[in-house]
Write a structure and sequence with these properties.
The chain has one domain: Four Helix Bundle (Hemerythrin (Met), subunit A), CATH 1.20.120. The termini are close together. Helix content is 81%, strand content 0%. The protein contains eight helices and no strands. It comes from Bullifex porci. InterPro entries: HPT_dom_sf (IPR036641). This is HPt domain-containing protein.
Length: 114
Amino acid sequence: MNIKAIASRIGMDYDNVIEDFCGDTSEVRKKLESFITDCNFTALESAVEQNDEELIKKCAHKVKKTGEKLGLTDLVKYAAILEDAKSGKISTSFEVLKNEYNKISEILQKEEEA
């Protein structure tokens, strides 16, 4: 997996992430490889299906924190919006976050298969 090559495609702030990981690209690679598991996006989807606002906020926070570690600026922004969303805005906010998450996941999965 060429981290620098996919960074812009997944919305990663490459320079800051590499600095945060003290230049250790192997650690960044490990974090990217475990991104889907670490995010536990399925828990967020389940919370949305159950309309459990407290759990939605908790799960959105986890997605946000996972994204922050990898400098995924758009994912972090959308997760924060969902975390703070009022009941009438949860569905729309979730769909925007889900689209971003799916985009990142698809790119990472293709990279792992290559």
